[in-house]
Design brief:
about 375 residues; alpha/beta; seven-stranded mixed β-sheet; 11 helices
């Protein structure tokens, strides 16, 4: 495809100045807890929230090793590295995606500043209360990665309220061009002050978002490929987005705030759960040895990010689907990042190659699901 140039579209319009402040000054009041509280700092992306939180955490603890889950994307690790932290990975049970508490305990030492806990696909980590207690006893910061979680909870406590601080990725759940959040629950951690995003950065994300919605850009492909199409070079897949405009230090745009204020959010949560249950019913009635749901049921209170399934080779199946004009699913975290030695976590590296996800913000038609099963059955 011919390279598109963003300055041909949006660079002359300053969308940030169009909306009066009264439209967005209380934009988060109807968001689920803990995002509706005063301790929330809104950022351009979830990775920005992690970077800003890690920087303040280092000032508090004076230690710089962070324990991170081995089942990881890389986007949640790069901000720690950029802030000056060192990384040590711990195990995650590949069958359940629950963290290995014993491995965390064994790796906690006097140099560890924090433990990152991820609620995969919106499903809560069942031992988070125990891990919180262990971290508290050892003076270690607990960080909740809620990039996959939104409006969810565990034992009637909102996800994101357990950690000393937590981060969210709003754009994964809301129809907005960007959006992240940092929730600080530990009063000893200082509040960072992200920078307002410049108009060019806001316009670029608006352009990309509009392109995905209109079908100009293909969902599921590497974001670097899409950025190349619009003439924006990004050297590091897992590094700061829009580095030339402020990268990790950027806060949420006024455009996104206005959109958040007017979105009918409860309908979105209901739709996600309904579509997840639809897929569960389909795979129960159409059991298939080559495609297995990663979760067998939907817990009360969970707002799922996707419907994940296990296949033989997610990249190969995605290629086959694309060749047939089907976009029923896409690979999830199939890239093996370089932040630690995958030979130490081979079962989780294999898992990265097998997970595909179906969308829950809309429903894949029954006919296309049947074809998805047919394409997945190959030798």
């Amino acid at each position: 495809m011919k390279q598109l140039r963003t300055n041909e579209f949006y660079n002359e319009i300053e969308f940030e100045k169009i909306f009066p402040p009264q439209l967005y000054e209380n934009f988060n009041s109807e968001l689920p807890a803990p995002l509706n509280g005063r301790t929330t700092i809104f950022t351009l992306y979830g990775r920005n929230a992690l970077y800003l939180g890690a920087r303040e955490m280092l000032n508090l603890t004076k230690r710089n090793i962070v324990l991170v889950p081995a089942y990881s994307c890389g986007d949640e690790i790069a901000p720690f590295v950029a802030s000056g932290c060192r990384i040590k990975a711990y195990r995650v049970h590949p069958e359940t995606l629950q963290v290995d508490k014993k491995d965390i305990e064994q790796k906690l030492d006097q140099n560890v500043s924090a433990v990152l806990i991820t609620h995969y696909f919106g499903f809560p980590q069942k031992e988070i209360e125990i891990i919180k207690k262990i971290c508290g006893e050892r003076g270690v910061v607990l960080i909740e990665d809620c990039a996959h979680a939104f409006a969810g909870g565990f034992k009637n406590i909102p996800l994101g309220a357990f950690g000393d601080f937590s981060i969210f990725s709003l754009r994964k759940f809301l129809p907005i061009p960007h959006g992240g959040a940092l929730v600080i629950n530990n009063t000893k951690i200082n509040r960072p002050n992200p920078l307002p995003p410049p108009a060019t950065a806001v316009n670029l994300d608006l352009f990309l978002y509009s392109g995905y919605q209109a079908g100009i850009f293909t969902r599921g492909i590497n974001i670097q490929d899409t950025l190349d199409m619009v003439g924006v070079k990004q050297k590091d897949l897992h590094g700061p987005r829009l580095k030339e405009f402020g990268g990790y230090n950027l806060g949420l745009s006024n455009v996104a705030k206005v959109l958040i204020a007017f979105i009918a959010k409860q309908k979105l949560w209901t739709k996600r759960r309904s579509n997840f249950l639809y897929y569960l019913d389909f795979f129960e009635k159409n059991s298939h040895k080559s495609v297995q749901p990663l979760f067998e049921f939907l817990e009360k209170g969970v707002v799922p990010l996707f419907f994940p399934v296990l296949v033989n080779d997610s990249e190969e199946i995605y290629k086959r689907l694309r060749d047939k004009g089907l976009f029923a699913g896409q690979p999830f975290w199939s890239d093996s990042h370089t932040y630690f030695n995958w030979a130490d976590f081979s079962p989780l590296n294999e898992l990265k190659k097998k997970v595909m996800v179906l969308p829950v913000n809309h429903r894949v038609h029954y006919r296309d699901l049947k074809r998805f099963l047919e394409v997945s059955d190959y030798r």
